[in-house]
């Protein structure tokens, strides 16, 4: 089948951001890598707002220059809206050492750019091939593939398999590793538009996260190609309370919120309204003998803080490094070095996501006065620096840190009322 190698050091399932970065990490370490992708690129995926930590990880994988050549819109801040209250978290106000900007990226172009960059470094990427099965032995695996164009079947022997298959979660399903999600299943309705009225200057590239009185939140993510991604996230019952098609429901919600209504007054959709439901996934184990899962093929929480691609790159980089060390003969304690490490990082965002939907974060974000140290800590997390031990929210426990911030905000508000 298509001159497919009979064996490889590492077989990667999926060539999204996790697959491309894991592949680049491993070929740079001298390994033969075959990445098998069932789609043909470019293909549409959601997940368009990156965090500064992504740039750091892409630089490590030798892929940042390729992105810089695409002229994506720089993202310097996340701006949150609640009626007439607003809070701009600028990544420059983050902690020392954090990267301070990122990009807003149309994902078809971004994923294509990453995969082309990974190929240039030596990753053997094959499109239109689907992984159907994998049989693991102590020293590797036999992976069964199907050519989606010709219908032919083939097998490849791999010393290590890295599952980067995103929401398809190939190994989690084959090995029955799904755990029940602990975050409520929500829906997203979204589209791309042209003609939104953007802020001028550096703020043009901000992501807007807008709270709607009906309990939903709205994302606005502008691109350098003149298009803008616009989406609403809510419980399905919220959408069901509006009448008409998916398009009608999306636009009714957008027009009800004054900040969005102003910004989108002249905007026209250029994409059919898309609908997604229930994305939170939890995997019992991120590794086993001869395999690991990275990116959305493992855990994914929620889109609210645009952390999906960052976690995909963080886990893919680490899994690629550890797999490489193991293939060179080192004994790796994957429980600590991979699962434990990633769980610490994921836990910070899990706390943030839960605090967002509980309303605690908006009490901190939109407080008229708040401690500067709190702004720095929050900026660092929103930049994706979830392992920075300089941040009290990371070092001393995120929930306890948020509780201290809430107390600090209450104290400052009481003092302001007394003054
Ligand atoms: C509503 C919503 C909004 C989001 N917004 C953001 C955002 O603003 N910023 C952000 O960072 N993240 C966001 N995300 C998350 C983001 O989409 C993902 O985290 C990111 O795409 C994960 O990358 P990945 O490489 O793990 O998987 P993917 O990008 O999904 O890539 C997986 C690849 O594997 C391939 N594949 C699947 N099965 C097989 C198989 N059997 N054989 C071969 N190939 C296979 C697929 O075709 C695909 O190309 C959002 C998610 C949702 C649901």
Question: How does this structure look, described?
Answer:
The structure is a single chain. The protein folds into three domains: 7-70 and 105-180 and 280-332, FAD/NAD(P)-binding domain (3-Layer(bba) Sandwich); 187-277, D-Amino Acid Oxidase, Chain A, domain 2; 359-418, no CATH class. Helix content is 37%, strand content 25%. The radius of gyration is 22 Å and the shape is globular. The mean pLDDT is 96. It contains 14 helices and 20 strands. The structure holds flavin-adenine dinucleotide. Flavin-adenine dinucleotide is lined by residues 13-19, 36-39, 45-50, 130-131, 164-168, 170, 188, 276, 279, 295-297, 300, 303, 306, 308-310, 312.
Question: What is the CATH architecture descriptor of the largest domain?
Answer: 3-Layer(bba) Sandwich
CATH topology of the largest domain, anyone? FAD/NAD(P)-binding domain
Give the beta-strand count: 20
Structural class by helix and strand composition: alpha+beta
Largest sheet: 8 strands, mixed
Number of domains: 3
Q: Portion of residues in helices?
A: 25-40%
Structure characteristics:
single chain, 419 residues, alpha+beta, FAD/NAD(P)-binding domain, D-Amino Acid Oxidase, Chain A, domain 2, 3 domains, 8-stranded mixed β-sheet, binds flavin-adenine dinucleotide
Please summarize what this structure is:
The protein has 419 residues and is α+β, with helices and mostly antiparallel strands. It has helices spanning 17-28, 52-60, 64-68, 107-121, 170-174, 236-240, 246-256, 258-263, 308-327, 334-358, 360-365, 372-382, 392-395, 398-418; strands at residues 7-13, 33-37, 73-75, 77-82, 85-90, 102-104, 124-127, 129-137, 140-147, 153-163, 178-179, 187-194, 207-211, 217-222, 227-234, 268-269, 274-277, 282-283, 287-288, 291-293.
């Amino acid at each position: 089948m298509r001159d497919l190698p009979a064996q490889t050091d590492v077989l990667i399932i999926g060539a999204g951001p996790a697959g491309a970065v894991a592949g680049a990490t491993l070929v740079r370490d001298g390994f033969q890598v075959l990445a098998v992708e069932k789609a043909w690129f470019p293909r549409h995926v959601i997940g368009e707002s990156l965090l500064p930590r992504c740039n750091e990880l892409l630089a490590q994988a030798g892929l940042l220059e390729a992105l810089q050549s695409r002229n994506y819109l720089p993202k310097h801040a996340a701006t949150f809206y609640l009626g007439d209250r607003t809070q701009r978290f600028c990544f420059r106000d983050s902690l020392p050492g954090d990267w301070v900007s990122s990009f807003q990226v149309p994902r078809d172009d971004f994923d294509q750019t990453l995969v082309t960059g990974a190929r240039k470094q030596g990753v053997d990427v094959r499109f239109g091939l689907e992984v159907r099965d994998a049989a693991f032995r102590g020293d590797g695996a036999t992976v069964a593939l199907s050519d989606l164009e010709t219908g032919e079947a083939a097998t490849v022997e791999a010393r290590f398999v890295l599952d980067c298959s995103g929401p398809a979660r190939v190994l989690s399903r084959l090995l029955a590793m799904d755990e029940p999600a602990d975050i409520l299943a929500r829906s997203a309705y979204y589209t791309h538009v042209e003609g939104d009225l953007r802020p001028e200057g550096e703020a043009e590239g901000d992501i807007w996260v807008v709270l709607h009185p009906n309990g939903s939140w709205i994302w606005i993510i502008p691109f350098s190609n003149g298009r803008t991604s616009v989406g609403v996230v809510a419980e399905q019952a919220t959408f069901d309370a509006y009448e008409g098609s998916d398009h009608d429901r999306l636009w009714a919600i957008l027009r009800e919120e004054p900040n969005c209504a102003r910004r989108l007054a002249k905007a026209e959709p250029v994409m059919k309204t898309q609908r997604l439901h229930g994305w939170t996934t939890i995997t019992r184990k991120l590794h086993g003998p001869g395999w690991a899962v990275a990116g959305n093929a493992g855990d994914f929480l929620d889109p609210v803080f645009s952390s999906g691609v960052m976690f995909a790159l963080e886990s893919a980089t680490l899994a690629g490094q550890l797999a490489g060390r193991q293939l060179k003969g080192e004994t790796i304690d994957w429980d600590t070095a991979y699962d434990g490490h990633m769980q610490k990082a994921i836990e910070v965002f899990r706390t943030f996501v839960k605090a967002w939907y509980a309303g605690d974060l908006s009490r901190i974000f939109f407080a008229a006065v708040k401690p500067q140290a709190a702004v720095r800590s929050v900026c660092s997390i929103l930049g994706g620096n979830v392992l920075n031990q300089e941040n009290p929210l990371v070092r001393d426990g995120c929930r306890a840190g948020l509780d201290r911030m809430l107390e600090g905000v209450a104290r400052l508000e009481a003092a302001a009322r007394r003054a």
